Amino acid sequence: MRLEAIKCPKCDARLNLVEAAKFCACDHCGNNFVVHWPQPAQPELTPFQAILERLVTQQDFLVADRRLGYLAQDISESQAEMRQASAAFVATQGDITAVKAKYNEKIRNALVCTGLLTVFSLVMLMVFFASLGDSGAGWGLLLAVGAALGAWYCHQLWKKTMAGEPAELRDAEERADLARERCIAAQAQLKELELEQVLCEGKTRRFRYHGDKS
Question: Cβ neighbours of residue 48 under 8 Å, at least 6 residues apart?
């Protein structure tokens, strides 16, 4: 999801607009804006206040009032999507943690095996040299060579594990990225609906206020 960085027309703070967003809010000054996307110009922001200061016609009121009837349901569904997206993202973080733990355990086991077999090989060499001329010397040398080969294999396995990121971890991280994007999209959609609700409520409130005064 592409973000467009622009300045708030009220306070010059940085705003990150989601591409094609219809509404946005400035976290610095608290102003809400309607977003227009002229092509290929930069997005144009119109403050809610400027829109509400205009004359709200009966047609504007009817459209806003009708839209408010749908927005409550839309916001409820968007909140449910946000919860599901957040839960999915948390689950992917758990998957990454589990895969990393499994990956680290492989590295640790390879190191332990390398160390143990190296020590065993050295011991067998000492036994071999200590028993030169005895009938058991050959077995000591054979065991030393076998242990050395095993230590070499474990060391190569450790190097291979360290050099390459496991495919399982890459898959988990890709799922996490997708879940993160889903969270961002759900959050942006919910924010837009809430801002649209604020604008529609402002229009209906202003129309009723002026209607009561007349």
Answer: 31, 32, 33, 34, 198, 199, 202
Question: Which amino acid is present at 87?
Answer: A
CB atoms within 10 A of CB 181: 13
What's the pTM? Answer: 0.68
Radius of gyration of the chain (CA): 33
End-to-end CA, the chain: 48
Q: Are strands 23-25 and 3-7 parallel, antiparallel or unpaired?
A: unpaired
Q: Tokens 């801002």 label which residue?
A: 195
Say if residues 82 and 183 touch (Cβ distance below 8 Å).
Answer: yes
Three-state SS string across 75-106, please?
HHHHHHHHHHHHHHHHHHHHHHHHHHHHHHHH
Read off the pLDDT of residues 14-73 as tens digits, 9 standing for 90 and up: 988 887 889 999 989 989 999 998 877 788 899 999 988 888 889 999 999 999 999 999
Cα 91 from Cα 175, distance rounded (Å): 10
- What is the 8-class DSSP label of residue 16? E
Cis, peptide link before residue 43, omega less than 30° from 0: no
CA 104/CA 91 separation, integer angstroms: 20
Tell me, rounded to whole angstroms, the distance of Cα 100 from its chain centroid: 17
Residue whose entry in the numeric block shows the structure tokens 């294999």: 153
HSE-CB for 194 with a 13 A CA cutoff: 12
What are 133-140's contacts with CB under 8 Å, separation 24+?
none
Q: Can you tell me the distance from the alpha carbon of 91 to that of 85, in angstroms, rounded to the nearest whole number?
A: 10
